[in-house]
Amino acid sequence: YTPEDIEKTLPKLYDSRVDMVTLADSYGGLLPNDVEHLVKLFKKGTGKMVGFHAHNNLQLAFANTIRAVEAGAGIVDASIYGMGRGAGNLPLEVLLSYIRHHENEYVNMVHLLEIIEQEFIDLKKKIGWGYNLHYMLSGMLGCHPYYASHLLEKHKLNMKDVWAKLIRIGKDRPMTFDKKLLEEVVAESTLENTKIEQIDFSRLAPETVKLEPPAYMKAHEGRDFLVLAQGPSLKKNITKIKEFAKEHNLVILGANYLHGLIVPDYHAFSSMSRFLQYHNFVDPNSKLLLGKYISEKIAKKYIKREFETIPYIDSSELSFDITDGIIQTNCATVSILLVGVAIVMGARRIYVAGLDGYQNVDDKETHFYKETVKVPKGQELNSLHNICQQYLTEIREYQIKNGQEPFQIITPTSYQEFYKKQDGF
Question: What is the mean pLDDT of the segment spanning 20-29?
Fold first, then answer.
């Protein structure tokens, strides 16, 4: 549009009933000063909220979007991994990184990066667009881009490990690429590198501070609990497990898909994809627990029943802890999260069934049923096993420190140090 075209359009927009005017840089050719001028012009000339949609042809989608916000834009667009035609759009992960640092807002980057790793990397290979994850990671974490490219391509690490190792590299603040440092970091334990001392809740990010103690806190104080995972041993030993639960009068916590094998007292989901796929299989007699990433709006769209939210702090930089009923962990395995929930509920003793582990198993052998949600494979699966092992160790240490009896896995498992064989299993 020419300046004359815009001048003619502004009064029409001012008199119209539209709520917002979006400026789309369709060719990706605008510079930040252009964006600032246009946003201010349309905001003043139309009296409407102004939005901005960037394209990344000149690698200026981020700079242009920030300038648009500073100029008064009320809504801006971004897409995961910059997915879009040609050079792509503003990457959502870059925008959230800016908010995380500049606005001092708590943003969980790991979950978004996992989505990129699991879905969008393959999609980009098939479709093709211009954004490169290596440079985003290195820029965000303050290290040479070769570190990110080597970790992702040569060492084939999963996103959690890459994130943790880049944090570790950033602590050394290398000015250039140091292959020896990279090899040292690769050889180290991932979670060991990111573990830090416990911190005060008052110093946590805004979202975390707003978390309230759950209604289920101390709901079953002094009772014994059974946590159900979905490993093949659950189905294989289900008859004995049900007998064991009845004999010991256990409060049962289950998650995801249980195939009607057993009706738990509480049925939990922490993954949106599994909630959408399996929520119809939750027994009416089970109380529903939902993780923090399943919003109330989404939940009410799909279910017509009461539910409680599991409040927890999701951070790869914190070790397991519980304060005022709020669990501190970033373990993505919901059954391990439920061990923490059992502690919050006041468990005296906790048994775990079906937590078989992921060590040296085929990706088709991780569940007692055929999982349609994408499952990690190979080295990624072994890495997940090690992460779970670390959090199980931290939970046990927490229980011992607080004078509690450590949990026991009662079905065959590769987490041998937590296994206690029961008669008949």
Answer: 87
The structure tokens listed for 298 are 């989404």
Dist. CA 312–CA 329, nearest whole Å:
7
What backbone phi and psi angles, to 5 degrees, belong to 390? -65, -45
In the predicted model, what is the mean pLDDT of the chain? 84
Q: What is the CA radius of gyration of the chain?
A: 25
289 contacts 267 by C-beta, under 8 angstroms: yes
C-alpha angle 7-13-15 in degrees, rounded to nearest 5: 115
In what helix (H) or strand (E) does residue 51 lie, and over which residues does it extend? strand 49-53
- Kindly tell me if the per-residue pLDDT of 204 is higher than 60: no
Q: In what order do the strands lie in the sheet with 75-76?
A: 20-24, 49-53, 75-76
Report whether pLDDT(193) > 50: no
Question: Does the pTM of the predicted model rise above 0.70?
Answer: no
Give 142 or 273, the one with higher predicted confidence: 273
CA proximity to 255, closest of 311, 337, 343, 348? 337
Q: Is the dihedral of CA 241, 246, 250, 252 positive or negative?
A: positive
Quote the crossing angle between the two packed helices 179-187 and 159-172, to the nearest 10°: 130
Q: Cα–Cα distance between 150 and 170 in angstroms, integer?
A: 15
Give the number of other CB atoms < 10 A from CB of residue 398.
Answer: 19
- Rounded to whole angstroms, what are the CA distances from 186 to 56, 191, 317, 385? 33, 12, 18, 17
Phi and psi angles of residue 249, each rounded to the nearest 5 degrees, phi first: 50, 55
**Token pair in block for residue 277:** 């796929």
pLDDT tens per residue across span 381-399: 677 778 888 899 999 999 9
Strand residues in 165-320 grouped as ranges (E): 224-228, 251-255, 266-269, 287-291, 307-310, 312-313
Is 205:105 a contact under the CB 8 Å cutoff? Answer: yes
User: Of all residues in the chain, what percent are helix, strand and coil, respectively (each to 5)?
Assistant: 45, 15, 40
The mean-pLDDT minimum among 75-79, 155-159, 391-395 falls in: 155-159
**Distance between CA atoms of 160 and 191, rounded to whole angstroms?**
9
Residues 399, 404, 410, 414, Cα dihedral to 10°? 20
290 neighbors 310 (Cβ within 8 angstroms): yes
Contact partners, residue 162, CB within 8 Å, separation at least 6: 137, 148, 151, 152
Q: How confident is the model at residue 198 (pLDDT cuts 50, 70, 90)?
A: very low
